[in-house]
Specification:
Layout: E1 15-18, H1 31-45, H2 50-59, H3 66-78, H4 81-93, E2 106-111, H5 119-128, E3 132-137, H6 144-147, H7 149-158, H8 172-178, H9 180-185, H10 192-200
Parallel strand pairs: 1-2, 2-3
Helix pairs in contact: 1-4, 2-3, 3-10
Domain AB hydrolase-1: 11-155
Protein name: AB hydrolase-1 domain-containing protein
Pfam families: Abhydrolase_6
Length: 232
């Protein structure tokens, strides 16, 4: 819906917002100044390498499968730098004020361990959107379509009028979503220890321990867990 939610009211029956927020980047700055600051930071976001690794760590909840870390890292590395910068600028332009005219029923999904668009941002978004309700998924991070595909599918189906809902397909929709991480990263056929070793290679380490936590240090802000960002 972009910055014109009221314009979409006559065309949409409902909306599901997955791990998002309004004005999370530069939220304490005027929009124009936020864009200028982000523009100065853009060179760092046009490079591949540790940006992808760092964001992959911050994107997943504590219980994520190791293959998901590889999938997210690969997706971030494959994203052109210009697209990363455009994404940051778009987030700087988002504002809760524009939601005042959004009367479309909406569901806001957020993971309890989302470090990128945390629950407090989802609560602010829900409060500013008339008719919106928030659903928090315990233990999940930012990548809900990968971490909790069943919950995302159910939330979408719930917002579709009964007469227009697609017929049940025995779970094929869910299985297709659940397989995204494996399909993107190419690790679907690897044994667990091979996946762990590949995730450990994100930091140039060898990770052959039975748990992924050997390579991903915990952090109190994320309640501990293997997917927390490294300590500063």
């Amino acid at each position: 819906m972009g910055r014109h939610p009221a314009d979409a009211a006559g065309r949409l029956a409902g909306a599901v917002l997955v791990a998002t927020a309004a004005r999370t980047v530069g939220r304490d700055l005027p929009a124009v100044l936020a864009e200028r600051v982000l523009g100065d930071l853009s060179p760092a976001w046009t490079r591949t390498g540790r940006i992808g690794t760092s964001l992959a760590r911050r994107s997943l909840g504590a219980g994520a499968h190791p293959a998901h870390a590889v999938a997210v890292r690969d997706l971030l590395h494959a994203t052109p730098g210009s697209v990363r910068v455009a994404c940051l600028l778009a987030m700087a332009r988002m504002d809760l004020v524009g939601l005042a005219g959004a009367e479309i029923p909406a569901t806001v999904l957020v993971g309890s361990r989302d470090l990128l668009t945390p629950p407090r941002s989802a609560r602010a978004l829900t409060s500013a959107w008339p008719g919106a309700e928030m659903t928090m998924l315990p233990g999940a991070g930012h990548m809900l379509p990968i971490e909790r595909p069943d919950d995302v599918v159910e939330a979408i189906l719930a917002r579709i009028p009964p007469a227009r809902r697609p017929p049940r397909d025995g779970g094929r929709q869910r299985h297709a979503l659940a397989g995204v991480g494996h399909a993107v990263s190419g690790v679907g056929d690897l044994a667990d220890h091979e996946v762990l070793a590949r995730v450990g290679a994100l930091d140039g380490e060898q990770c052959d321990e039975p748990g992924i936590s050997a390579c991903m240090p915990p952090m109190a802000e994320n309640g501990g867990g293997p997917w927390a960002p490294p300590s500063k």
